Amino acid sequence: RGPGGEIGKLRAALQAILRASSVVVNGSYAYISAGRLNCTGSALEVFGISTPTSPTNVASKTFTGTTRGQMAFGNNTIYIAGGDVVSFDVTDPANPGNPTYVVVDDITRGATVSGSYLYVADDDDSVDIYSVSTPTSPSLVSEGLANTDDVVVSGGKVYTVGGSGNELRFA
Fold first, then answer.
1. 3-state DSSP call for residue 12?
2. Considering only CA atoms, which of 39, 22, 40 is closest in space to residue 78?
3. How does 116-139 read in b/e, with b if 16+ C-beta sit within 10 Å?
4. pLDDT, tens digit, for every residue of 38-95?
5. Are 105 and 129 in contact (CB under 8 A)?
6. What does residue 6 show for φ and ψ, rounded to 5 degrees?
7. Which residue among 32, 97, 114, 154 is least crowded, i.e. fewest CB within 10 A of its CB?
8. DSSP 3-state assignment of 39?
9. What gap in Å lies between CA 21 and CA 32, rounded to an integer?
């Protein structure tokens, strides 16, 4: 909607505290990855949006690292792809767990969750697949799918985009 609608009010609330870079909505909560203004570090901001005209900041959790990448949600966990991948248990959205860091070999560009797996597109143009059946201890299970800038999983297929011809592929 326009600047005076629900989006405008959420934008005004965000501008007061942070520089947002990515958002995921699940149920009545919006999870926002952001660089904090006038201080170092990044933050996961949680907004209650059950009343869209009056979004409410219900939680904030700071972490080290970048917020440039995309966010993904799965199994009550938020994943933020930036430098490394940062995850937060959001079983209780008003009290996110401490950050867990998945160290990757390059800067991450995109992420998606399907079932118990986290798919991460990174700067070396590949997709790394992590088991997140234990979200606080992700483990690498596969590397590959070269020439990839972003990744989505749908209907049991992995779709990637990127490469020199910017082609869409699936595996």
1. helix
2. 22
3. ebbbbbbeebbbbbbbbeebeebe
4. 455 688 889 999 988 888 999 989 887 665 667 889 999 998 877 778 889 999 999 9
5. no
6. -60, -45
7. 154
8. coil
9. 7
In eight-state DSSP terms, residue 96 is P
Say if residues 37 and 18 touch (Cβ distance below 8 Å).
Answer: yes
φ/ψ of 26, rounded to 5, equals -140, 120
Tokens (6 digits) for 153: 């999983």
pTM: 0.76
Q: Are 153 and 112 a contacting pair, CB within 8 Å?
A: yes
User: What torsion do the CA atoms of 5, 49, 62, 120 make, to the nearest 10 degrees?
Assistant: -90
Q: Encode burial over 41-77: b for 16+ CB neighbours within 10 A, e otherwise.
A: ebbbbbbbbeeeeebebebebebebbbbbbbbbbeeb
